[in-house]
Amino acid sequence: MTTSPQFQFSSAPLRAASPKFILSGLLAATASLVFAASGTAQSTTQPFSAFPVIVDGQFTSAAEWSDVTPSAFISSPGTTAVPTTLGNPLANSLLYATLAQSTPLADPALYLMYDFLPRTNPIIAPGEVFASVAFQVTLPGRPTGDRTSIAVLFAGKGASTIKGDSGVGVPPSFFDVFIDLNLDGNPDGLASAFGITGAAGFGPSSLSGIPHLLVELEVPLRIPAGFANPPSPGGPLPGGGINPNTGLYDPDPIFWGAAGGADGGPAGASFGETLQSASGGVFEINPNGSITVTPTPEPSSAALLLGGLGLFAARRRWPVAA
User: Tens of pLDDT along 99-111?
Assistant: First the structure.
């Protein structure tokens, strides 16, 4: 029998999820379908980053993320984010993904940065879910490949106006990071119980000098022994694997979908009033420590997913937060 992690909960209730949140869940749950439909999307292979990544919701230094080529998207209300070319003036959402280390002695991990220009309003209401990232992991105690779809939820801990000045980090106290194990938009525990580290902030980026939402995520790897080629010290991955029985994320192709709470609603608006798709992509870890990212969905898979979203929403009425 699998032992469930022990969780702690925030005192601030999350605002009720709307059917729009389920889009991220559907994206993660239909990974193989989306992967098959995304054959013409432009893939990029990102080498192991030469620079440490610090999960603080900021571009911490000029070096951090500087050797990572992001995938670009056009994010709009009411639809999935559309992959586009980097440098397109319509691009308003960037996805950075790489394997890296936080320190020279730390295990390599998967790091992501979501650069989301549609959110510039730095006021986060208590319990407001302002970002979510959905993907699949192998939970502790289960064999590699026995995956569960989860979402990492970023929710406001208290009403705060966040500093967004260039080079100024934001205090981590304004948000909590939860895990949603059944993709209903409500938390089942803290992300830290799974070893997942997340941080959010507001700051400038290559998209705009105006401070906007930045979300960073670190996910522990589950790399089997013998996967690395070449193994360290010739390559960045150890030959004996990384947490082969206890890590979360394994090398096989998995779809990731992200959503952000955009501007356009009053401060503290419920989740469904401001949430929109930020990015989507299939990630595959390679034996040399690089990661291949295929931006998705394309129009065919997006239409299919939105059709499924409509069917799902028609079958469930979401509760209204008290």
Answer: 999 999 999 999 9
CA distances from 160 to 28, 51, 121, 174, 199 (A): 31, 31, 11, 6, 15
Average pLDDT over residues 213-223: 96
Partners of residue 197 on adjacent β-strands: 218
pTM score: 0.79
Specify the amino acid at residue 270: S
Which residues lie below 8 Å from residue 286, measured CB to CB, with a gap of 6+?
45, 251, 292
Beta strand spans in 117-159 (E): 123-124, 129-138, 147-156
Closest CA to 74 of 60, 89, 59: 89
Q: Residue 202: what are its φ and ψ, rounded to 5°?
A: -125, 130
Q: Which residue has the tokens 């930020």?
A: 278
Q: How many CA atoms lie within 13 A of 126 on its CB side?
A: 8
What lies within 8 Å, CB to CB, of 246 at 6+ separation is: 140, 222
Chain position carrying tokens 């192991």 = 48
CA-angle at 207, arms to 201 and 212, nearest 5°: 25
Maximal CA-CA distance, the chain: 56
Q: What is the mean pLDDT of residues 73-94?
A: 92
Sheet containing 197-203, strands listed edge to edge, beginning at the edge strand earlier in sequence = 82-84, 71-74, 93-100, 109-116, 212-220, 197-203
Location of structure tokens 């029985």: 245
Q: Please give the Cα distance from 296 to 305 (Å, whole number).
A: 12
